[in-house]
Amino acid sequence: MPVPIPRQRAIPAVESGQAPAAAPQDQPSKEEAPRKEATVDNNAATQLSLLVIEDDPGGSTVVPELLDSSGKPIRVRTARNLTEAERLLTDDVHCILLDLALPTPGRSPDDDELAVLRHVLELAPRHAVLALTASGDAERGAEAVRVGAQDYLFRDELDGRLLSRAIRYAVERKRSDTAERRLAEGRVRAQENRRLERGLLPTPLLEGSSLRFAARYRPGRSRALLGGDFYDVVRTPDGTVHAMIGDVCGHGPDEAALGVELRIAWRALTLAGLCGDELLGTLQEVLEHERSDDEIFATLCTVDIAPDGRRAGLCLAGHPSPLVARPGRPARLLPYDNNGPALGLLPGARWPRMQVELGAEWSLMLYTDGLIEGRVGEGGERLGQDGMVSMIRRQLSEGLRGEALLRAAVNEVRSLNGGELADDVAVLLLDREA
After folding, report:
1. Is the CB of residue 406 less than 8 Å from the CB of residue 391?
2. CA dihedral sign of residues 389, 395, 397, 401
């Protein structure tokens, strides 16, 4: 940040050479009028408010009549010490004028000479602050700006017009700094979300398999990038293709992070040779150790497709059953009579593995409950599994396959819901052609 220039910093247009020096106080310059939209007083209903923190504000020269850019008076409150300032510092205060010579309780001569400023900045992080210092003490004023003040002014050189403009400039500068900080924080959050999303949406390991893979993920309306849904697909050395889809209850980065951990654990355990009940029991242990609250649970669906592609094992942990479609037969749900409990609900639970016949040619769709819990029309009725099966049957009859089928399914569910879905949606599709 450049070192401030005494006094002139309170008039940025003059300092930058973009406007002439200020006119007398009773005759506002013509150049100043077009700048109204750039000041904090761009709303006629808003009145600027200043809190002066100084030893003797009543006898000071810094409380003349102060006007905003539209000519409205700037309200002034005064405080003789930090205790009074804290009481008067309400949300309608826009700017603080702080005397840097104000005594700090308990301060020794060896303490930081800007301790009072640091205290005020901590007390009022969202407010603009103008530092008031003795004439000729530009070095102290510049240090105050480096610490966090928006500007500094000389006590003996103030007049109403200069202070009025300094207040407006400080408030606008604080707004700009706050907006810039929020933008930077938003970028960091977006980067973190993308890292989590990459963990939730992995690259499938299907090298050597004849199966085709497609997937689609869409966060619910309250989240921009991620939620608690996760999935994965891997092929083990014996030729078996393992697929999984799951959903951590709740939404947000904590649930998304737990979903990433469960997905990675599932992949590692699967590649290590675990399957069925043994695998799900181990995943439950992972969830119990990693969750932030004992009430958090996760639903899961796993399938292991035999190397010949004609049959599969199915395990359900509180999760909706997959849908299978075969040529010449209507799409239907796989059996779910032996659906076990969600992970994290019952210690020592078991998850039976069911053997299902797939045939020579088929499409297998795994999904999270966001796909079936959207509303249908204006009433409270939800799509449900039956509605989803009917929708997929119709879309298959229209010739939709692979990614086009998943895209159409998610778009139609959103349309039936009348807009974005409240819950996240994850869908994956495995196809085998004869």
Report:
1. no
2. negative
Does pLDDT of 222 surpass 60? no
Looking at residue 286, what is its pLDDT?
Answer: 96
* pLDDT of res. 72: 81
Is this structure's pTM higher than 0.85? no
Whether residue 45 is predicted with pLDDT greater than 80 in this model: the reply is: no
Contact 156, 134 (CB under 8 A): yes
| Cα 406 from chain centroid (whole Å) | 27
Rounded to an integer, the average pLDDT of 393-412 is: 96
Question: How would you write the chain as a 3-class SS string?
Answer: CCCCCCCHHHCHHHHCCCCCCCCCCCCCCCCCHHHHHHCCCCCCCCCCEEEEECCCHHHCCCCCCCECCCCCECEEEEECCHHHHHHHCCCCCCEEEEECCCCCCCCCCCCCCCHHHHHHHHHCCCCEEEEEECCCCHHHHHHHHHHCCCEEEEHHHCCHHHHHHHHHHHHHHHHHHHHHHHHHHHHHHHHHHHHHHHHHCCCCECCCCCCEEEEEEECCCCCCCCCCEEEEEEECCCCCEEEEEEEECCCCHHHHHHHHHHHHHHHHHHHCCCCHHHHHHHHHHHHHHHCCCCCCCEEEEEEEECCCCCEEEEEEECCCCCEEECCCCCCEECCCCCCECCECCCCCCCCCCEEEECCCCEEEEEECHHHCCCECCCCCCECHHHHHHHHHHHHHHCCCCHHHHHHHHHHHHHHHHCCCCCCCEEEEEEEECC
Q: What was the pLDDT predicted at 279?
A: 96
Nearest in space to 375 (alpha carbons), one of 406, 411, 409, 416 = 416
Please answer whether residues 92 and 49 qualify as being in contact, where contact means their C-beta atoms are separated by less than 8 angstroms. yes
| Ordered strands of the 332-333 beta sheet | 212-218, 425-432, 362-367, 323-325, 332-333
What is the band of 128 on the pLDDT scale with cuts at 50, 70, 90?
very high
Structure tokens at 174: 């604080």
Bigger pLDDT: 323 or 13? 323
* pLDDT band at 196; cut points 50, 70, 90: low
Query: Contact, 373 vs 383, CB < 8 A?
Result: yes
From the list 249, 288, 253, the residue with the least C-alpha distance to 369 is 249
Q: Which two tokens stand for residue 45?
A: 């209903």
| Interstrand relation of 425-432 and 362-367 (parallel, antiparallel or unpaired) | antiparallel
Instruction: Provide the residue type at 133 as one letter.
Output: T
The more confident residue out of 196 and 112 is: 112
Residue 187: C-alpha distances to residues 71, 93, 181 (Å): 39, 30, 10
